[in-house]
Each structure stands twice: as C-alpha cells, then as structure tokens.
Structure to design on (217 residues):
C-alpha cells in the first residue's frame, strides 16, 4: 500500500504539469499558413479583411467560388471579404488576358453589376469556352445578361478602372502571391490550398486566423 501511495505521489505532479501545458493550436505557422514578408501586422482596429486572390481563367478558382460564397455568409460583422484579381509577373502587360480579366472585375464593380456578372464571367470561361479578351466577345457576354455591353467595354478603359487594376497589381507584388485561389487574412497571413491541404481547409485556416487576430487585439 505504501508503495502504491508513493507511486501516486510521483504521478500526480507529472499529470499536473501535463495539464498546465498550453494546448497545441489547430493550425501552425509555416505548416498550414505563412506570414507575408515585409507586411505590417494586422491592425488593432477596424474590420478584419480577408482577400481572395483569384483569376477568371483559373479552374481552381471556379471550383472555389461556391465554397467561398457559402463561407462568406458565415462571417461576423467585424470581418469583410474582398477579391483582388491576380496578374502573374510575366503577364502584367496591359494587353494581356489577365490584365483584361482584372478589368472585367473592376468594370462590373464600377457599374454596380458585380454580383450579377462575377459568376457570369466564370461560367463564360469554364462552361462556354470564352476567352473574354476581345471587346466584341466581352460585350456579347454582358449584353446576354440584359445589360449594355457597349457601355461596359467603354468603361473598361476608364481612368477609375485602370487605377484599380494597377492597385491590384501592386497588391499582388506586395503579397508575392504566385497561385490562385489564395487568401490573405488581415493583410499579413497567407493561406494556400497546398499548405492548408484543400480548399475547404483553406477556409478553416482563415477562420482560425481571424480568431487569432481578434485575440491579439
């Protein structure tokens, strides 16, 4: 009996120590997400911004859209989700398709038709095999939605649209994103499917990082 009591006396402090150890986080920096080099830490005030880097020509982005839209509905009031069109380093000349596709996004936004046209552009490229580069093709796709295609293509060359495309290009340079779809949380944390494990896990990691930013405030 004395021997058993002695063993228990040794074991209980060890159990207590184990209980005091902090729980391992569900997701780890460097394994499931990374910190963006050279970017400031998330703001202590204001809404937490989650940015999706995407491209209309990306099949993975097309598949990610339904997941992202459903996830967006679950976000709390202190979180805002935005999109930023991607333009690869070797494809940043204004005549290039990626530059033109970025213009599609910001033109639709400028005309107040983003919610309607954003999924249409994805469908046109991945179901109808459109390239959405020529103004005639773009105008036809927009007109088919009951909108003014001619006004749309004219707006694509506006100062405001070109300025936003340039800002998106600068944003991608700063974030050093090289794939799509990818997420940037709080302008500081970078989440990709390759690190997270899947598109579904990307959103779970984003939730984890949103909560982390809240706790760090």
């Amino acid at each position: 009996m004395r021997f058993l009591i002695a063993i228990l006396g040794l074991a209980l402090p060890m159990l207590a120590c184990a209980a005091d150890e902090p729980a391992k986080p569900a997701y780890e920096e460097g394994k499931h997400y990374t910190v963006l080099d050279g970017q400031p830490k998330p703001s202590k005030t204001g809404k937490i911004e989650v940015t999706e880097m995407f491209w209309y020509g990306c099949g993975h982005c097309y598949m990610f859209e339904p997941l992202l839209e459903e996830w967006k509905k679950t976000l709390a009031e202190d979180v805002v989700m935005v999109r930023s069109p991607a333009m690869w380093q070797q494809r940043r000349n204004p005549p290039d398709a990626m530059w033109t596709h970025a213009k599609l996004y910001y033109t639709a936004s400028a005309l107040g038709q983003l919610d309607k046209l954003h999924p249409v552009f994805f469908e046109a490229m991945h179901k109808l095999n459109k390239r959405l580069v020529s103004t005639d093709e773009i105008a036809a796709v927009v007109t088919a939605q009951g909108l003014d295609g001619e006004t749309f293509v004219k707006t694509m060359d506006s100062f405001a649209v070109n300025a936003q495309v340039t800002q998106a290009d600068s944003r991608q340079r700063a974030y050093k994103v090289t794939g799509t779809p990818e997420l940037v949380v709080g302008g500081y944390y970078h989440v990709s499917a390759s690190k997270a494990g899947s598109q579904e896990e990307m959103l779970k990691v984003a939730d984890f990082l949103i909560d982390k930013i809240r706790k760090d405030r």
In short: Strands lie at 34-35, 48-54, 79-85, 182-185, 189-192. The chain has a mean pLDDT of 91. The longest strand covers residues 48-54.
